[in-house]
């Protein structure tokens, strides 16, 4: 398989999904440089995540449950959550609930894209393999980012104890869904597709409801309507 084709098949799905969720922002789109910075940050955390995962595997072993919920989902989603909380949560551009989804998806897809590139070069990968990865793990990471970002958006615009509640949900919900996905993949052999496909449909359905819900409470929705009326 030509190098250009490998790179395209590895990178394009992540960029396309990022563009999709970016354009789903109905009222106040985020600055492209900041979104790209978060995408690149997602790429940069791949190496430290791999180091931590290797260490935990040596320490805890790699039983299906431990691998799925701790080593894979736990470590990856924690790193994403950590950089989002420290880099963007208090940023002035985080000014509506849907922004949490945009930035979390950007970090998640940055991670998934570089992971996809490494997979393509470290293992013999056909175009079909890479397309399957685009449909499953890459889009999965995007949806885990939707759930994380939705709760971050809720936390950002909540008060009192609800802030901590939603910050915890921003970490725990993606770990749960990511862990379930990985657990299916490592425990179900030949029939895995019959479980993963409906599982992904559920994730997409629920994820798009979160997208619509976050947009529906944007403080800019009234300004947008006023502009439409005036025009």
UniProtKB/TrEMBL annotation:
Gene: prsW
Database matches in PANTHER family: PROTEASE PRSW
Main localization, broad class: membrane
Protein name: Protease PrsW
Pfam families tied to this protein: PrsW-protease
InterPro entries the UniProt entry points to: Peptidase_PrsW_arch/bac, PrsW
Keyword list, A-Z: Cell membrane, Hydrolase, Membrane, Protease, Transmembrane, Transmembrane helix
Keyword presence, tRNA processing: no
MF terms in GO: peptidase activity
Function per UniProt: Involved in the degradation of specific anti-sigma factors.
Membrane topology: Multi-pass membrane protein
The keyword Membrane appears for this protein: yes
């Amino acid at each position: 398989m030509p190098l250009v084709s490998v790179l395209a098949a590895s990178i394009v799905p992540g960029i396309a999904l990022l563009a999709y969720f970016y354009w789903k922002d109905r009222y106040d789109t985020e600055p492209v440089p900041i979104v790209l910075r978060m995408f690149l940050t997602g790429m940069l955390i791949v190496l430290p995540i791999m180091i931590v995962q290797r260490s935990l595997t040596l320490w805890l072993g790699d039983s299906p449950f431990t691998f799925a919920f701790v080593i894979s989902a736990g470590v990856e989603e924690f790193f994403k959550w950590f950089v989002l909380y420290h880099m963007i949560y208090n940023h002035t551009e985080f000014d509506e609930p849907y922004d949490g989804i945009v930035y979390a998806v950007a970090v998640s897809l940055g991670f998934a894209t570089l992971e996809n590139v490494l997979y393509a070069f470290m293992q013999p990968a056909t175009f079909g393999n890479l397309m399957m990865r685009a449909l499953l793990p890459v889009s999965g990471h995007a949806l885990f980012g939707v759930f994380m970002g939705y709760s971050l958006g809720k936390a950002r615009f909540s008060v009192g104890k609800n802030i901590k509640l939603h910050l915890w949900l921003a970490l725990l919900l993606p770990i749960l869904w990511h862990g379930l996905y990985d657990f299916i993949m490592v425990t179900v052999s030949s029939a895995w597709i019959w479980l993963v496909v409906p599982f992904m449909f559920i994730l997409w359905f629920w994820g798009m409801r979160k997208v619509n819900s976050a947009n529906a409470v944007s403080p800019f929705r009234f300004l947008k309507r006023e502009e439409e009326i005036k025009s």
